[in-house]
From TrEMBL:
<dbReference type="InterPro" id="IPR045627">
    <property type="entry name" value="FBXL18_LRR"/>
</dbReference>
<dbReference type="InterPro" id="IPR036047">
    <property type="entry name" value="F-box-like_dom_sf"/>
</dbReference>
<protein>
    <submittedName>
        <fullName>FXL18 protein</fullName>
    </submittedName>
</protein>
<dbReference type="Pfam" id="PF12937">
    <property type="entry name" value="F-box-like"/>
</dbReference>
<dbReference type="Pfam" id="PF19729">
    <property type="entry name" value="LRR_FBXL18"/>
</dbReference>
<dbReference type="InterPro" id="IPR047948">
    <property type="entry name" value="FBXL18_F-box"/>
</dbReference>
<dbReference type="InterPro" id="IPR001810">
    <property type="entry name" value="F-box_dom"/>
</dbReference>
<dbReference type="GO" id="GO:0031146">
    <property type="term" value="P:SCF-dependent proteasomal ubiquitin-dependent protein catabolic process"/>
</dbReference>
<dbReference type="InterPro" id="IPR032675">
    <property type="entry name" value="LRR_dom_sf"/>
</dbReference>
<feature type="domain" description="F-box">
    <location>
        <begin position="19"/>
        <end position="66"/>
    </location>
</feature>
<dbReference type="GO" id="GO:0019005">
    <property type="term" value="C:SCF ubiquitin ligase complex"/>
</dbReference>
Length: 711
């Protein structure tokens, strides 16, 4: 589209010679086309091509909401010019994750006098700059900011505090113990808190969860409707969130309808939190709920909480049994058509009647899943990962068969062992040669194709009556799919040294391989795919089918496929990448991965690629191939490689990339570092949160948060 205006300026075009002229389209059609063009290009480039486009590019439908959060080419000068040209027309401005812009860029936001919503998460904002900016934004009602070390609420002016007093929605990411601007927001209805405080400083000193001097102001929660808190690992984050919760425990807001706390590991219940939950059980009716596992396990809390029209539940990592799930949450089969998102990841007993004498690997009770599917028939997001959900041999009661009834699903996460055909595992038990991890096998020549080259050949090898094949065929509108081994753990966890050994996959998962991957190619509208710990990948042939059929694929994450001693699917992966024209994010985690010339040549076909992350214990790379790839793929702004190379090789390559491409790519973020180096955690802490949270760290993202939690 960007080349069409040039033809218009010249006076003649191929469209005119064929009887079709872009400018003859109606304004409605042209506005729809222009809505796909970044706002910076519209205002700074496209509108200068002709009079008609000059008018259309300034239409309110295009300038009302400005999204810069994924515009990696924007720089300070473009933002300055954009605000100067249309600042008064902007009502919603999203600059989330624009970590590359200098803090002085925020000064230009003051031109947007009519702003109602502003997202500055991930931007560099000091207390003084925040005060100056907010003092001019009298209509602001929604704000997202980061609170970094050095933040001082006493520097906020009275005009700034007046603006904050009218803010009803606040999202605050904390990198230091602080209330931030919460005490100033006396009209809060929605509060989202992200705790990213590290337990140790860069100098190695232990940090305290006590708030800074002058931070004793009490938050105002009386109008609160939504409370959400997500904690990164660490005891300091737990200490600080308890201070935020202390006020809630004294007086629970009457209009509270969503209460969500996402906390990894152990987050013990205290007397204050128990009082809070008791008060909630007496006084409020919830529509969304998520609690730390220790607050639910062994308590009768769910039996006393009241729900109105729930749209989101998360019982991640809880020991909740299927019996309790049906009785206390679904009320024995109560109609829950309002529920659109359900997270049961890590709930090892959620599909069993009771958990007292049950082993995690025992078969599920299909009647529980059947009740769940019948009651929650409008589910759009379902996460059943990180557990062993083994179906019995009963005909028609396989997990995949029951899930196929959920016709509205848009995202789904399943453990690998849940998709296998029971009959196949019974008739063909895995042999010793198929178990993973395996010892080093004979090397496979990458140049030789050892897999079927098209979908028809693959289909001949696959029994298409398998339950997983049928499930994929029934969920044609699925956009996100995660198939993750129940015992899989990434080699690069948060705030810890790299994991050197991984647990073997579930025995039931041993038969899952190429044919199951091929079945995924039926998902025509698939946008995001995660495959982790599929033991029986022999050639990766199914990946080629996905590349050919899933043309909307934007995010691909592959981890520990096939044997661990060699990358058996490399040839198929390279063939797949040649067809992935829309792919933007690629994450690969595989021991002994060779990131060489052939791989990067194939990856260069992904013309839309923006972010690349490779995690490989004992993996190797070719520096000249990486440099050539970066030169050919002009959209790439993130390159993270954690391999087995020496620190010297990694540092030299990282410096070469930054030196060669930083000037033309302002958002460029490069981290190349030995995976098993003792300083890995120090390197990770400097990665922008956007990249760290979205791609670098492995995790299940289906139903991780309620849908539309923030704009």
């Amino acid at each position: 589209f960007f080349f069409l205006p040039q033809e218009i300026v010249s006076g003649e075009s191929e469209e005119e010679s064929n009887g079709v002229n872009l400018m003859e389209f109606s304004d409605e059609i042209l506005l729809h086309i222009l809505s796909y063009v970044p706002c910076t290009d519209l205002v700074l480039n496209v509108r200068r091509t002709c009079r008609k486009l000059a008018t259309l590019c300034l239409d309110k439908s295009l300038t009302h909401t400005v999204l810069l959060q994924k515009d990696y080419k924007v720089n300070k000068d473009k933002v300055k010019q954009l605000m100067r040209d249309i600042g008064k027309e902007i009502y919603q401005l999203n600059m989330a994750g624009c970590y590359w812009l200098p803090s002085s860029t925020i000064d230009h936001v003051t031109r947007c006098k009519n702003l109602v919503k502003l997202n500055l998460s991930g931007c560099h904002v000091t207390s003084l700059r925040l005060s100056k900016m907010l003092s001019t934004l009298q209509h602001l009602r929604s704000l997202a900011i980061d609170v970094n070390p050095g933040f001082d609420a006493s520097q906020l002016s009275s005009e700034c505090k007046a603006t904050l007093s009218r803010v009803s929605e606040l999202k605050q990411t904390l990198y230091t113990p602080s209330y931030g601007v919460v005490p100033c927001c006396t009209s809060l209805e929605k509060l989202l808190l992200y705790f990213e405080i590290l337990d140790r400083s860069r100098e190695g000193f232990m940090l305290s969860g006590q708030l800074m001097v002058g931070e004793s102001n009490v938050p105002h929660y009386q109008n609160l409707r939504v409370f959400y808190a997500r904690l990164a690992p660490g005891y300091v984050n737990q200490e600080v969130v308890r201070l935020y919760l202390a006020v809630l425990s004294d007086r629970t807001p009457e209009n509270l309808h969503a209460f969500l706390i996402s906390a990894p590991g152990s987050f013990a219940e205290t007397g204050a939190t128990k009082n809070l939950l008791d008060s909630m059980a007496r006084n409020v009716r919830l529509d969304a709920l998520q609690l730390p596992k220790a607050w639910i396990n062994g308590s009768g809390l769910l039996q006393h909480l009241k729900f109105n029209n729930p749209f989101y539940f998360s019982f991640s990592r809880c020991t909740l049994s299927g019996g309790h799930l049906i009785q206390r949450v679904i009320n024995g089969g109560k109609d829950l058509k309002s529920l659109t998102s359900l997270n049961l990841s890590g709930c090892v007993h959620c599909l069993a009647p009771e958990s007292l004498f049950r082993k995690a690997e025992d078969d599920i009770d299909s009647s529980i899943l059947e009740s769940l599917v019948a009651s929650c028939c409008n589910l759009r997001h379902l996460n059943l990962s990180a557990a062993h959900h083994h179906s019995s041999e009963s005909i028609g009661n396989h997990l995949c068969q029951l899930l196929s009834r959920l016709k509205h699903l848009l995202s789904l996460a399943l453990p690998v062992c849940s998709i296998t055909d029971v009959a196949a595992t019974v008739e063909k038990p895995p042999t010793a040669s198929n178990l993973v991890p395996q010892a080093f096998g004979r090397k496979v020549r990458i140049g030789i194709q050892t897999y079927p080259r098209n979908l028809a050949d693959q289909a001949n090898q696959k029994i298409e009556s398998s339950v997983f094949w049928a499930l994929m065929g029934s969920l044609r509108f699925l956009e996100t799919l995660e198939i993750i081994g129940s015992s899989f753990s990434s080699a690069m966890p948060r705030n810890e040294p790299a994991i050197r050994n991984s647990l073997p996959p579930c025995v039931r998962a041993q038969s899952v391989g190429d044919s199951e991957v091929a079945a995924i190619s039926q998902l025509t509208y698939l946008q995001s795919l995660t495959l982790a710990q599929l033991p029986n990948i022999l050639t990766g042939s199914g990946l080629v089918n996905i590349g050919l059929q899933c043309q909307h694929l934007r995010t691909l994450s592959l981890a520990n496929l096939g044997m661990m001693g060699k990358v058996v699917y490399m040839s198929a992966l390279m063939d797949m990448l040649k067809h992935c024209k829309c792919l933007r994010d690629l994450r690969l985690e595989q021991p002994y991965f060779c990131a060489g010339a052939q791989f990067f040549q194939a990856l260069s076909h992904c013309s839309s690629l923006q972010r690349l992350c490779i995690v490989s214990r004992s993996g190797t790379l070719q520096s000249d191939a990486v440099m050539s790839f970066m030169a050919n793929c002009l959209e790439v702004i993130m390159c993270h490689m954690f391999m087995g190379e020496s620190l010297t090789v990694c540092k030299n390559l990282q410096q070469s990339i930054v030196r060669s491409f930083q000037a033309d790519r302002p958002a460029l973020n490069v981290v190349i570092f030995p995976l098993l180096h003792e300083d890995l955690t120090e390197v990770i802490r400097d990665v922008p949160m956007r990249h760290l949270d979205e791609i670098t760290l492995f995790k299940s993202r289906v139903a991780e948060e309620p849908p539309n939690l923030w704009w």
